[in-house]
Amino acid sequence: QLQLVESGGGVVHPGGSLRLSCAVSGDTLDPYAIGWFRQPPGKEYEGISCMSSSDGSIYTKESMEGRFAISSGNAKNTVYLQMNNLKLEDTATYYCAVRIKGTPVGACHSPFGMDFWGKGTLVTVSS
Asked: Is 21:70 a contact under the CB 8 Å cutoff?
């Protein structure tokens, strides 16, 4: 079992930045893909950026490139999402999730295939 706990959400003005954290604990069962997803109010989940535990390869959804970036801490038990130049439409609940034996591309394209999810952290972009 894995436990994922997101933190770092909050209220930010348009153009602002936030860094979200995802603390991972439990048996990680390498290899796996870990990624960030979001669900805007009333909309579907969408993948943002995902990373491989085995080689550190990263996939970021094209529409997110340049503003969102995934990274991991030295101990690999924390994954971050740096979000810059935030826009009103970035308001959403942000989740981290893991797919055992998954690839970054596969994970980000298929949120419902993830095996473990955190409870999410709310990001509100408001003027």
From this structure: no
Instruction: In whole angstroms, give the CA distance from residue 28 to residue 35.
Output: 14
pLDDT in tens, 81-101: 999 999 999 999 999 999 998
Q: List CB contacts of 25: < 8 A, sequence separation 6 or more.
A: 2, 3, 5, 77
Tracing tokens 């436990």 back to the chain, one arrives at 3
Do the beta carbons of residue 99 and residue 117 sit within 8 Å? no
Residue 9 CB neighbour total at 10 angstroms: 17
Closest CA to 57 of 13, 104, 99, 20: 104
Residue of 74, 44, 92, 45 lying closest to 83 (CA atoms): 92
Please confirm whether the linkage preceding 31 is cis (ω < 30° from 0). yes
For 42: left if phi > 0, alpha if psi spans -120 to 50, otherwise beta; the answer is: left
Peptide bond into 41 cis (omega under 30): no
Residue type, 97: A
Task: Identify the pLDDT of residue 28.
Answer: 67
Average pLDDT, the chain: 93
